[in-house]
Amino acid sequence: MGRRELPVLGGGGISVPAGARRTVLRVEGMDCAACAASVERSVGRLPGVYRAAVSFAAGRLEAEHEASVSREALEGAVREAGYRVAVPRREERRPPWREARFALTGVAALLFAAGAVLQLAGGPGVVWISLYAAAIAAGGVPIFRAAFAALRSRHMDMNVLMSTAVVGAVGIGAWGEAALVVVLFAAGGALQVYAVDRTRGAVRALARLVPEEVTVLRGGMELRAPAGEVAVGEVLVVRPGERFAVDGEVLEGRTTADESPVTGESAPVEKGPEDTVLSGSLNGAGAVLVRAVRRAEDSTLQRISRLVEEAQASKAPAERFVDRFARVYTPLVVAGALAVAAVPPLLGGDFGTWFYRGLALLVVACPCALVISTPVTVVSGIGAAARRGVLVKGGEALEAAGSLRALLLDKTGTLTEGRPVLERVVALAGDREEAVVLAAALERRSEHPLAHAILSAAGERELPEVAGFRSIPGRGAEGEVRGRRYLVGSPALFAERGVSLEEAGPALREVERAGETPVVLGDGEGPVAVFGLADAVRPEAPEAIRALREAGVEEIVMLTGDAEAPARRVADLLGIDYRTRLLPEEKVAAVREHVERRGAAGMAGDGVNDAPALAAATVGFAMGAAGSDVALEVADVALMRDDLRSLAGAVRLSRAAERTIKQNIFASILIKGLFVALAPFGFVTLWLAVLADMGTSIGVTLNGLRLFSGRRRP
């Protein structure tokens, strides 16, 4: 059996049989990366499990195992570690105040408050000590259970440290502080879990937009059937107000579709026969018949949901750095706490005083805030991007996009619309309007893209009849209009016919200088008009380029296989640099050159023709990726909407995520460092240490979640 190397949490690799089964579970109740490590070790101990990787921020366990390992066994290992497996996707979630963790925290807080009141009022010691003990027992249930599971897996996590501190405080008679430590820690953990679960749930809600049942035409009858049983090619009836369950093609009817769950664009899109509809989008006022082009599990929204969850479980470079830092920091501070508690009493110091200071330092040793500072931000940033129609394929891509200073852009289809338009008309005989009408009449039967540009320019004008029409492949067309023979086409056509274009010389040079393609209209006597046609620049392109510069992208370069003149025209309009006449392999070389020179460079293209260049870039952005298998696979960042402003929005969001990660890491290290320095001198009480630890953890969590709850921008 073949084997492959798979990454494991913390680096390295493990050899996994190629035929190993893969199971993904959603885990609830984790409030830090140390909790995830405990689950990982508990599952990893099961016989037949090759690999277990848990992401705290994404609430996701991915296990590679033998076929003999059941899902129930994996779920049992999760529960043994002190955590829960999430409810099925469609099941309604209970409000947080009905969760056991929140209820126990509330009971513990009430018991602590009652004990504190009695103690301050001078009540019997046995009563208020009993109330404190009850508060410790109620609030400490999930803490002590998770600590026991961590110890069984030989792992020292935050629950072990906090449990040790509580037991130590009880041992020296500090019942009130022990109870307060439990209440603060339990409350902080519950709030943190709730905040992160909201983000996880909001992203998972994407998948719930797809209906479970659909109306399908079978044997000439309308039947209700599960969406998962719809085969490719079957015809669905989608009525007003219903959601499309699969990607499909409209066969009959006209309507509008709200595609915001997929593309982030809230404006309804007109749909008619032969138009594509995407799963999860909302049907407007018209009933339509839709032919399924993908099965439900392979449709766009479902694939996006899976890719987002996988991306959220990935690690950013900053997170890997923090993990390495925490692996060194925690043992050092724990060793310091033991030294503070043991060494001074041996030298004659008061045991109770120094033991208490050691306990405070032990609480400070918990690296919760530092370890969650990055993953929470990554989960939030990827989720926020998904809501805006931008699929970021992992924490590494999110962080890399946030640090880009150079961006390369494909021209055709990315900066331009990929279709020619009529940019100028130079009339040499008669007026401009008449010249356009004559040329459009001749081009009416032509299939050439340049002909379509002239026809579009004529608009709704009435076109005269053409007699004796003849298409001249690769050159143009000719025919008789109003009794006069006309030619329309390239200058080469007129040279072949021996028609002098001397009179059109200045106009042709003007068109060529502007980077436009010349088309000449003439008769047997000479040229009548010269048309300049060019690839239309996307209307949103100037705004997007400005936004990219404002976001900090210093160098923007257009790469194209076009000639100098048309490329210069587009570059001048947008105020960017350009490189021309590039073959596909030369585009790849240009990207690599910028990566080497800048350290990092992004590349944006359509995800199909530009796949090699996208892969060569530090971050590859694929435009208009909705429904495109190639774009979703090849790009680091897939822009669902075919709108260049989405690119600027993705860079802006990544910049915000990068800033937030740095803020969180700086705040966590600063506060931890301050309390580590103060604890040995008696300036930090146990409850203050817990308050600082959980307060910082909640603070960095909420700071990271700001990305998700922020105002939507294109």
Secondary-structure map with pairings?
Elements: E1 3-7, E2 13-17, E3 21-28, H1 33-44, E4 49-55, E5 60-65, H2 71-80, E6 84-85, H3 100-120, H4 125-152, H5 158-171, H6 175-208, E7 213-218, E8 221-226, E9 235-238, E10 248-252, E11 255-258, H7 260-263, E12 269-271, E13 276-277, E14 282-283, E15 288-292, H8 300-313, H9 317-346, H10 351-364, H11 368-387, E16 390-392, H12 395-402, E17 406-410, H13 411-415, E18 416-427, H14 432-443, H15 449-458, E19 467-472, E20 476-481, E21 484-489, H16 491-496, H17 505-513, E22 517-523, E23 526-537, H18 541-550, E24 555-559, H19 564-574, E25 577-579, H20 584-598, E26 602-605, H21 611-616, E27 619-622, H22 629-634, E28 637-639, H23 645-678, H24 686-709
Parallel strand pairs: 17-24, 17-26, 24-25, 26-27, 27-28
Antiparallel strand pairs: 1-2, 3-5, 3-6, 4-5, 7-8, 7-9, 9-15, 10-13, 10-15, 11-12, 11-14, 16-28, 18-23, 19-20, 20-21, 21-22, 22-23
